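Re: the 173-residue chain
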Amino acid sequence: MTLAMYQIAVPPFVQTLTALAGVLAKAETHAAAKKFDPAVLLASRLAPDMFPLSRQVEIACDFAKSTVARLAGVEVPSFKNEEKSLADLRARMSKTLDYVRSFKPSEIDGSEERDVTITLAGKPVTFKGQAYLIHFVLPNFYFHATVAYAILRHNGVELGKRDFMGSVPGLGE
């Protein structure tokens, strides 16, 4: 059985962003229990030279929305990076999920050989659709989602692997 581009992209984006929204909700609960402003977490980082939590979530969302748009051959929507709270980040994730879910398999399948040009380090780089998705997008998407999870875990939010994974198709959840 072969996997279609839609199946490689959309369900993983939906699963991971949905799980990450749950992780952010747990972070809000944690902050309330410990009596601190949850907005403090937005600026938290794992290392001084890494992006803070807010940017990690924004980038994960950007990879999901831009990828489905590029694979479908449509203009990438622009979302402003102006989230000031965990609730704002969850709203961005919800908006991203709505956008990603709006695509039908027929709009993305068959994009394996479509040229996808992006700008990296100020220079245009062109990938074929399948290489773009598998070798560039998915590693970057999972990196930023994982770092967001790790920032919150590092700040004491009680999270486990199931929180990161979310609902896994086929496990009856």
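Residues 5-164 form a domain with the Four Helix Bundle (Hemerythrin (Met), subunit A) fold (CATH 1.20.120.450).
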